[in-house]
Amino acid sequence: METQTSYLRLLAAGSNARGQLANGSDYDSHTFTECHFINCTQGTLPHNTLGILQLATGANHTLALLEFGDGRRELWGCGDGRKGQLGPEYMGQLTEFTPISIPLYQTYASQGYTCCLIAAAWETSYLVLKSPSRSNVVISMGSNDFGALGVGTKQATATPAVVSFDHLTIEGHSTNPDELVVESIAAGPRHVILHVRAGFNNEDTLIGWGLARHGQLGDTKIVNYDRPYIISLDVSSDPVQTCSLGLQHTIICHQSGRTTAFGSNKKGQLHRMDSWGRVRQVGCTWNGTYLLRDDDENTLISTGSNAHGQLGRESQVEENGVTVGPVEFTLSHDGKLPSLRSLACGSEHVMAVISPSGSSDMEVWGWGWNEHGNLGLDHMDDVLKPIKIWPARGHALEGRIARVWAGNGTSWILLQI
């Protein structure tokens, strides 16, 4: 989260068929355009907004968790709400970011709960609510395809629901909801994983639900789980640092810097995942995996599908037809690689925040699938190697890059002006 000293601007580019870019229309945007927040001056965020804590994207909807100067947090959303993914009040289409009113959430808010985490699957949304004196609460809403709601039924419902964990057994003991703390939630298009601390010993545990047939929840015996299921991966001795979910695979980054991968390897997205160390961030496109290493050059390793240039390098195919290696960034004028700060993976494109060698300035570079103009380059051709996409030529806005996000054919940049 970034502190506002002057003001913030949120820019977006790419797919916009249901208004998910919040630019006031439902036309794709091939350049980065300022997002609209309802009842706000065009391009500005709501008054006294300190920052965007999280931004989550589904197939055609977007959620943003805003924090304000008085400590309030609000959930805003835009795009497609036909499956209930924007709550029961908006079952149509929103082309501007609008506060999301959810009676179930308001009931918990009146008891002292705050929304702390959000995530989005294809047409499903998730909120994690926390209270200083009560147990964590997970709310799901929207489509229930493949059991995405996690409520133990295959029936669709437009009513938001609380996900129950009462049926789970950890260390031979039934789960006490009061002892379950959600550390993070990550969603791919069709499956969800929570990193929780639970049980008498506060053990780190992974819990998931949704599509499972490819082993993306650690077990190939079940087609999908329609309620939470404990993933059989012991993370107690090496806790989870972060995790990322693709279309059919899951990557876990442990605090030690090693990684664990499970799910489909059809595109080579799991190739050599156990051979890297010193990893500090992981990311997944639908069919690819990206590891940001904590070495002298902050090397970004990529593997998986390269159908749209999303691996960011000339393909050097190994004997088994899979390519794995570093993303090829252009050298700075002094012959050194830029410093890579962070990355964001979309459906089949990637964004990276970098600092050119010898500079403290930050830039956004991108590559991969660009059919919807989601790289903001004013064209729709795929980009096979990383190129600078922000600051953009001819764009009047200047400011420090605060955060970037990548979604399903969408890209987002938060600027602090």
Automatic annotation (TrEMBL):
Pfam families: RCC1
UniProt RCC repeat ranges: 136-198, 204-256, 298-356, 362-417
Family annotation (InterPro entries): RCC1/BLIP-II, Reg_chr_condens, Ub_ligase/GEF_domain
Domain of life the protein comes from: Eukaryota
Keyword check for Cell inner membrane: no
Gene3D superfamilies per record: Regulator of chromosome condensation 1/beta-lactamase-inhibitor protein II
Alphabetically ordered keywords of this record: Repeat
Annotated protein name in UniProt: Regulator of chromosome condensation 1/beta-lactamase-inhibitor protein II
